[in-house]
Viral A-type inclusion protein (Enterococcus saccharolyticus 30_1), 217 residues
Amino acid sequence: MTEELKKEQDPVDNERNETSSAVPFTEIKEVASKNIGQMLQDLQAFETAIEKEDIPEIYRIYNGRLHKELKETSNQNHEIDELLARKIHDSFVATFPFMIHADRISPTVHYYKIGEYYHERPTIGIDASVPEIFVIPAIDDEWRKFQRGNRDMLTAIEQQMDNLDAKAIAAQSEIQKLQEEIDRIKRSENELSESKGFFNRGKIDEELEALVQERKK
């Protein structure tokens, strides 16, 4: 193929490639219209959920399909955060009347005290953005350390009890041996007492005295 023929064909090929690779405008318009329509539907559903204060639906839409820009716009001044935190707070203290609000850490995170429990310090936290109820990390660490200390103390006590049990068993065994020896000596004393006669009285008395002394040891 000559160089001139290649030059004539190249523009035609380039134009054909550009035409085949280009997406029709009508298709782009349809996709954009569909996306915008879906965003409007999500926004309307979100507004309805907020008006009704339907917390599960708010979470489902806000953390699910709601577009990022719509999230930022609708919650620009933490309106959604405040609503969720308030609703969870109301439900929480209604269910657990002894819980006392102690501190506002952020628009979504709040700390609570358990009445007068645990030195009247905040113990429980709520994060409305998740939502989640949790033990405050510093308190949780203290409890874990306390539990580990208790386990160590319990292990030491159990070891001491095991040692005492072993000593008690050994002592019981020794007592049993001593009792058996005492019983043997008593039997010997009784046998000698029964066999004591007029002629062997002196000898038997000596043996009895020896047994009595042995029993006293």
Q: What stands out?
A: The first strand starts at residue 99 and ends at 104. The chain has three domains: 1-74, 82-135, 142-216. The chain is about 70% helix and 10% strand. The radius of gyration is 46 Å.
